[in-house]
Amino acid sequence: MTINRIDQLFMQVKKGNIFSTVFVSGYGNSPNGHWQEIWHKETMNSYWVEQNDWTKPNCVKWVEALNEVIQSIEGPILLVTHSLGGNTVVEWNRTHSGNVLGAFLVAFPDVQAVGFPEAISGSESPLSRSYHFLV
After folding, report:
1. Which CATH architecture has domain 14-128?
2. Angle (CA) 120 52 70, round 5°
3. Beta pairing class for 46-48 and 20-24
4. β-sheet bridge partners, residue 6
5. DSSP 3-state assignment of 46?
6. What is the pLDDT of residues 18-57, one digit of tens each?
7. Model confidence pTM above 0.90
């Protein structure tokens, strides 16, 4: 694919002409000026998954919040995640389904690593097991 074609495709994505984009932030949310927040503002037909508690994540509750957004959208969806948002998408994929084309996982953490914040509960590390995931 040429750079010109990639630019054309990206412009279609920003206009929301190809699919909806769902942004799934991680621990602490993505504050003003964060790349994810900027992309969300610049992308038409995009959605932001809001969590009840950004500093004490509960996997089950985060997955349900994601599922509510996904189920509310008609048509194909691209998930764009950061940090613990990636784990949320992996956990969602284990127990739910939807019209998701794929996922862009950025800064995916190992939630079982020594020193990982204790406030985060319920997530498993897909690094330790095999997953058949979104293409």
Report:
1. 3-Layer(aba) Sandwich (3.40)
2. 95
3. parallel
4. none
5. strand
6. 889 999 999 999 989 999 999 999 998 999 999 999 999 9
7. no
